[in-house]
Specification:
By secondary structure, this protein is an alpha/beta fold. It is built from four helices and eight strands, in the order ββαβααβαββββ.
């Protein structure tokens, strides 16, 4: 584990560092069996767009908490989120989504969207069976805030 007191961002300076610059300084030549866990309060979208294909391909597992998902109806936000998800999905498959129960589900145009959710992705080279699961919540899922009501992932997110 490596810790650097900087925020992940789209440029490297005295306060922020790109994922590529961090990896090049902290993990040079460390292989392609890395795990990325990211919860950076909304900065995940631009950080993912900015990551190189070479670096994202080195991660075996990626766990990211995506914020502001209720804004997917906004065309500008949608395009940014789409770029970020496409970057991850180029080499990885989403294997689990866990909504954060600290905020309630947003509903627009009849579609329920968790405002914040943690997504787990596995590198495509590690997946043998891409049959989607139909069992949510997973027995290992726990509420983020025990004082708030339980939130279940809406079926529209995993049933066709």
């Amino acid at each position: 584990m490596y810790f650097l007191k900087k925020h992940i961002g789209t440029t490297s300076n005295s306060e922020t560092i790109t994922l590529d610059d961090w990896a090049n300084s902290s993990l040079p030549g460390k292989g392609d069996n890395l795990i990325l866990q990211m919860d950076i309060e909304g900065a995940e979208y631009f950080s993912l767009i900015n990551i190189s294909d070479a670096l994202i391909n080195r991660f075996r597992i990626i766990i990211i908490e995506f914020h502001s998902l209720e804004k997917l109806w906004n065309p500008e936000f949608y395009n940014i989120a789409l770029e970020a998800f496409n970057k991850v999905l180029k080499h990885h498959t989403c294997v689990h989504i866990h909504p954060n129960n600290d905020q309630e589900i947003s509903k627009e145009h009849g579609v329920e969207i968790p405002r914040v959710a943690e997504f787990t992705f596995i590198h495509n080279s590690r997946i043998k069976d891409k049959t989607p699961t139909q069992n949510f919540p997973n027995p290992l899922d726990f509420d983020n805030n025990p004082a708030k009501p339980h939130v279940v992932l809406p079926e529209v997110w995993y049933k066709s």
